[in-house]
Design goal:
This is Putative chymotrypsin-elastase inhibitor ixodidin. This protein is of the alpha+beta class and 111 residues long. It has one domain: Laminin. It has 4 helices and 4 strands, in the order αββββααα.
């Protein structure tokens, strides 16, 4: 009986997967607001204040929550914030602001 239950649960999980490995969650509660679960997400996500961090990442992908396109991790790495909110956060800090171009480019790529 438990094997049947496990099989049904696995089958249901397989049905909610998209072709790109993203788990469909309409309410956004599994990963938090503006984030999605990916089986092969970046091990070095873009973080507000460290916009080029992901460019030098040589780590393999990892399963977990990632920010949706147009969003980056907040500096405390707790939540996904919009690229605009990130720019407004780092603008008063010249050293951080000088590297804002990758995040500014996201503003034109919102889906």
């Amino acid at each position: 009986f438990t094997m049947k239950v496990c099989f049904v649960v696995l089958l249901i999980e397989a049905l909610v997967l998209n072709m790109d490995g993203v788990v469909s969650k309409d309410d956004g509660t599994a990963c938090g607001l503006n984030a999605i679960f990916m089986f092969c997400g970046s091990a070095c996500p873009t973080v507000c204040g460290e916009p080029r961090r992901h460019e030098t990442c040589d780590k393999p992908c990892v399963p977990g929550c990632v920010c949706k396109p147009g969003y980056v991790l907040s500096e405390d790495r707790v939540k996904c914030i919009s690229a605009m909110q990130c720019l407004l956060t780092i603008a008063p800090h010249p050293k951080k602001f000088q590297n804002f171009w990758p995040i500014a480019a996201m503003l034109g790529n919102k889906e």
